[in-house]
Design brief:
single chain, Phosphorylase Kinase, domain 1, Transferase(Phosphotransferase), domain 1, 2 domains, 3-stranded antiparallel β-sheet
């Protein structure tokens, strides 16, 4: 297997429930070697967005220029990604293992290499084998996130992975809010509606005659009739936005 290039080739495991992997600076030559050792996907700012390596590890590169005074200037996406990986793991949520975290010397470019999760995204399953999508089980997983105080604000069926053993994990988690207790009901309803803004996913669910997501989620909540009706109203309001 080809080297990932220089000092960046050394694997630094990110232990679960521990602090995020320390960030280092790498040279242009090291980044070029990293990009050559794999299959690039898309591009931004002159660099691939993702490189899939032969050993099933993945390098994600954030090269978009920061806007002055934007949140990206003081809390860039690559730092959020690494921090959230540690935070989510500390709450018992399965995420990719962070192997390396770096910034390109003298630039805004951030780089993270991680070990991919085995399995398939819910979106891929809906495309290829929709009968294998377990909506009640998926809602149970989202419910568990909410009970643990995790609001994955950019959640969609492309960033929830179903593993071979039937469990679930998350990827692309740069936008997460944490609560000290369970996520409030109104925020849960809005969050549950977010993945259903992707019409192709919704159509595949309907064609496969899979169970209703909101009804499956509501079976997990002990709500009286007014609270249930308010939950559904909030859910539907966010779907129409």
């Amino acid at each position: 297997m080809a080297s990932h290039g220089g000092a960046f080739a050394k694997v630094m495991p990110c232990l679960k429930n521990k602090a995020p992997t320390a960030m280092k600076a790498i040279s242009n030559e090291q980044l070029d070697a990293l990009c050559r050792n794999g299959t690039p996907i898309d591009s931004q700012g002159g660099y691939p967005c993702i490189v899939i390596h032969p050993d099933d590890t993945i390098t994600k590169i954030w090269a978009q220029r920061k806007r002055l005074f934007s949140s990206r200037s003081y809390n860039p996406y690559h730092k959020r990604f690494v921090k959230n990986a540690a935070m989510l793991a500390s709450r018992g949520i399965l995420v990719p293992e962070i192997l390396n975290h770096a910034v390109l010397e003298g630039s805004h470019v951030g780089i993270v290499t991680y070990r991919s999760l085995p399995g398939h995204s819910i979106r891929d399953l809906l495309k290829e084998t929709p009968g294998e999508v377990d909506i009640p089980g998926l809602c149970d997983y989202i419910f568990d996130l909410h009970e643990k105080g995790v609001l994955f604000r950019s959640i969609h069926f492309g960033n929830i992975i179903r593993l071979p053993d039937g469990s679930y994990g998350l990827i692309d988690f740069t936008d997460v809010k944490y609560f000290n207790g369970p996520v409030p009901l109104a925020r849960r309803a809005a969050n549950l509606a977010f993945p259903l803004r992707y019409q192709e996913d919704v159509e595949r669910i309907e064609v496969a005659k899979l169970p209703s997501i909101v009804n499956s989620y509501l079976t997990l909540l002990d709500l009286d009739t007014p609270a249930r009706e308010q939950f559904i109203k909030t859910f539907e309001d966010y779907l129409r936005r």
